[in-house]
Amino acid sequence: MTVTQGSASLAKMLHILELFSETRPVWSTVEILEALETSRSTGYRYIKTLHEAGLLDSVRNGHYSLGPRIIEMDLQIRMTDPLLLASEGVLEDLVDRIGHSALLCTAFRDAVLCVGEARAPSSPENRFSRGQRRPLFQGAVSKVILAHLPHHRLKAIYARQSGEIEKAGLGDDWSTFRAALGEMKRAGYSLTVGEFNPGVYSVAAPILTDQKTSLGSVGVAWNENERRDVEVQDAVLAVKQAAATISERLLEKPS
Asked: Which residues contact 103 (CB under 8 A, 6 or more apart)?
């Protein structure tokens, strides 16, 4: 087997894990084999390997769910992830300061993943929560990450997603796309209104590396119909300060 064949085989095996979702938490062996479009022997081998690694669990004869090893890995991430550790206390202070729910996010493929959260009592419905993804081109927490990605990564994203970028109102060609991101980058934050839920404001600022590229973002959201007392510029300042604190902590060398 060549390296390329081996990589393709590994990718197909790992694709099994992506089949499982909140709406489809259990898959039968037959369903997995059909989704993989591979031979029965190869499919059975993949399932056996993932089961032995604890990444799949047998819930009944011939049916599988995600396995216990993933729970162990989630605990390890919660205890050791540098981004989460650097944000310790920051999100909670942000909620106390301005009374909005606070989110910690990072880029994942062509999307943004919520990795941490602190909730205010008046959190909007359909709230974005840890473990959920959102498009990279919608919402403040996403757009501010996008604006601070390295140039070569933006070029690759644009080549794959130019249609979605245009739909999101971020530009109908490369130059207008870069100009839209440049405005956000100069401002140091993103503000959106109603992009996922009507009347919901969202403000986010980037968490940056020493090269000033984004590792993630901090954001807050509130419903204007429930919180008419909110000063947008106060929220912007608080979010920018929270993101700067996390960025500074990440740059500190361990003692």
From this structure: 91, 114, 116, 117, 128, 141, 204, 218, 219, 220, 221
> 3-state class of 204 per DSSP?
strand
Rounded Cα distance between 186 and 175, Å, is 16
Residue of 61, 73, 67 whose CA lies nearest to 16: 67
Rounded to two decimals, the pTM is: 0.85
**C-alpha torsion angle, residues 189, 129, 163, 201 (rounded to 10):** -40
How far from the centroid of its chain's Cα atoms is residue 116's Cα?
A: 10
**CA–centroid distance for 42 within its chain:** 32
Determine the pLDDT at residue 192.
93
Q: What is the pLDDT of residue 128?
A: 80
Q: Name the residue with higher pLDDT: 252 or 89.
A: 89
